[in-house]
Amino acid sequence: MVRGSTVAIVGAGTVGATLAYALLMRGAAQRVVLYDVNRAKVEAEALDLAHGIQFVPPAQVVGSDDIEVCRDADVVVVTAGAKQQPGQTRLDLAASTVSLMRTLVPGLTAVAPDAVYLMVTNPVDIVTQAALTISGLPREQLFGSGTVLDTSRLRHRIAQETGIAAKNVHAYVVGEHGDSELVLWSSAMIGAVPLLDWSTTHAPRLDADARAAVAEEVVAAAYRIIAGKGATNYAVALAAVEIIQAVLRSENRVLPVSTLLTDYVGISGVCLSVPTVVGGSGAEERLVLPMTSAELAGLHASAERIRSVVRELGF
């Protein structure tokens, strides 16, 4: 952990509480604070976590319904928002969640103006763009978790199909964190071998039909989990910890976070996920990967889908 580092989590619901647990288990921060308007809930979550402190790297846990608990945090993670219901798309959540951001974000930036802000609340691309507009913060300082989780789901499935460890699969999901996201198959690698050329005696080549099936599973994964247990929480919390550690430790990790794009392959003025260097100052350089014409068209279509909703919401 970075000595003295404080991570403030806004929202003590399923994702927020799981994120706090994951941060403690990984020893990612010296101080973890939970902020939620539900005082009984947030204090109970913090107390439950504190009772296990002797079993994890040394840290302090605090829970409060007073926004002052977030003061001078190094990283602020926003998980608060309307809960996605079975069959409901992330975009369906947009209006109510953006309305919440209009009151929440100014209070947070007042107590933690220098923090790096990570938006996790869905629909994350729209929430990120709204929060940027409301806060006036630079795009490096405030960004969304984007398709980091989707990319993890993709690499998991490719690992299953090929028999190779997920950490040796290098492939990205880009675009909206939602139904219009797409896999950049043309740049995907297993080790140093292009995935499209992959063929071994123990794993067949992933042909077009197999790739399409994998991509469909990745897009539908959240719906399947929500239908079965009501929410996604473990993997998204672990994905958020990866992003937070990249910031606190200045790791310069390449992660597909959601940032406001400016002339990225012809796309501007919309928050989308693309491979981005994440380090001490937040979301830094955006990397342009090779894309086929179909992939480029898919990314532009995803941008238009987000842009149309953002316009409806007045941003």
TrEMBL record:
Taxonomic superkingdom: Bacteria
Regions that span the bilayer: 6-24
Domain Lactate/malate dehydrogenase N-terminal: 7-144
Domain annotation Lactate/malate dehydrogenase C-terminal: ranges: 147-309
Active site feature: H177
Record field: catalytic activity: (S)-lactate + NAD(+) = pyruvate + NADH + H(+)
Cited InterPro entries: L-lactate/malate_DH, L-lactate_DH, L-lactate_DH_AS, Lactate/malate_DH_C, Lactate/malate_DH_N, Lactate_DH/Glyco_Ohase_4_C, NAD(P)-bd_dom_sf
NCBIfam families: L-LDH-NAD
Family: Belongs to the LDH/MDH superfamily. LDH family.
Subunit (UniProt): Homotetramer.
Protein name as it appears in the record: L-lactate dehydrogenase
Species whose genome carries this gene: Georgenia wutianyii
